[in-house]
Design a protein that fits this description.
alpha/beta, Rossmann fold, 2 domains, 7-stranded parallel β-sheet, 6-stranded parallel β-sheet, about 50% helix, globular
């Protein structure tokens, strides 16, 4: 070994980048489950690029570094990648262009990893929609140089193939949050907010979010009002994106005379809380994932294909309804929800074999990370 080689710093650990430190429970659930699964594979040297590194370090027990906005912070990120054995992009729906800056932002960090000669692994990605030729070209150009790609749904897999990205192995797995575990006491957490779920009523958690088209809201509100009266429902609204979901949750709860969960909770705590309910109605993908993970029947209000894709994978697509359909035909929503509420006891069992299989696929993502580290 030459003197130059003997002083060369040794790479160690993995660096993870996703939409972390932004008070989005779904993404924090992804990260928490990823860390659990990676730790099970013996991978404990983890640094997370986060919008709030101090909070991420405390919440998840990992090292954390500011992810930067656009070009800010790139020097520190480059140094971190230069010293890492593996760069993990994911999980979650990062490679989509609902906003024009999203794809260039995430791929700029992939480009840095390529410059630093650090292997890149796309971990349980949700890919698409990709509306523009620029986004499609960028995804193809940067992704064909990564070491491995796993995606969380069939539509993402098909889009990768459609882009003719054939060089790295591509594997269909599942969203990491399907492997999340909890030891929290959900009933105790609800009692901390003075929320008591009455035993003589159907207790339903509901997770709404603001979205581009709000025409559906009046019909959804009217439908919920009818169902509360017809089925003796007790609704609890649960914000999943803090500083975003509270307003719509408060408005619906006020109109319906129902409750809102107001404290901030970790993903594991919310998993335990959702286990206390008879069922979950949600727009938020990870409210559905955590609900299903907790063996609760779920009903999806689909604002994005990723929500419909998940319901399809757990054999529950029948119990989903798109927002644009609610806006024009709320009667079918009423019929679907009535059927769902009538059959809650049976529906949890229908999904369970699929959930168990997806949980193993979610853990497969971490096994691949270990294999990539072993074969360097």
């Amino acid at each position: 070994m030459t003197a130059a080689n003997s002083t060369k710093p040794k790479r160690s650990g993995v660096t993870i980048l996703g939409y972390y430190g932004a008070d989005n429970t779904g993404d924090e659930a992804i990260l928490q489950a990823m860390i659990e699964s990676l730790n099970e594979q013996g991978i404990t040297d983890i640094t997370v690029l986060s919008r709030n590194p101090e909070k991420t370090a405390v919440q998840h027990g990992v090292k954390s570094l500011y992810t930067g906005r656009r070009f800010h912070g790139l020097t520190a990120i480059y140094r971190q990648l230069k010293n890492s054995e593996l760069f993990i992009l994911g999980g979650g729906g990062l490679l989509q262009d609902h906003s024009a800056r999203v794809v260039p932002y995430w791929l700029s960090r992939v480009f840095l990893a390529h410059l630093s000669k650090t292997p890149v692994y796309y971990y349980a990605q949700g890919v698409g929609p990709l509306y523009t030729n620029r986004s499609r070209r960028l995804v193809k150009a940067l992704s064909k140089r990564v070491k491995y790609i796993t995606v969380r749904d069939r539509q993402s897999f098909d889009l990768i193939r459609e882009l003719n990205i054939t060089r790295p192995p591509i594997e269909l797995t599942a969203d990491p949050a399907l492997a999340l575990s909890t030891t929290a006491d959900g009933a105790e957490l609800l009692q901390g907010e003075k929320i008591i779920l009455p035993k003589n009523r159907l207790n339903i958690a509901i997770a709404l979010r603001p979205w581009l088209n709000e025409e559906y809201q009046a019909n959804l509100l009217a439908t919920l009002k009818q169902l509360i009266a017809a089925h003796n429902l007790n609704l609890t609204f649960i914000p999943f994106q803090y500083n975003m979901d509270e307003a719509i949750s408060e408005r619906f709860a006020s109109e319906l005379g129902q409750y809102v969960l107001r404290n901030h909770y970790s993903p594991a705590e919310l998993l335990a809380i959702l286990q206390q309910f008879d069922g979950i109605i949600a727009m938020r993908l990870h409210a559905l994932i955590l609900g299903a993970n907790g063996q609760r029947p779920v009903f999806a209000l689909c604002y994005d294909n990723k929500v419909e894709n998940f319901m399809d994978r757990i054999a529950m697509k029948e119990y989903s309804y798109r927002l644009e359909q609610i806006a024009v035909d709320p009667d079918i929503l009423n019929e679907k929800l009535t059927d769902w509420l009538t059959n809650l006891d049976q529906l949890a069992g229908v999904s369970q074999p699929y959930i168990e299989d997806l949980a193993q696929q979610a853990k497969r993502n971490a096994q691949i990370a270990r294999e990539l580290l072993e074969h360097q």
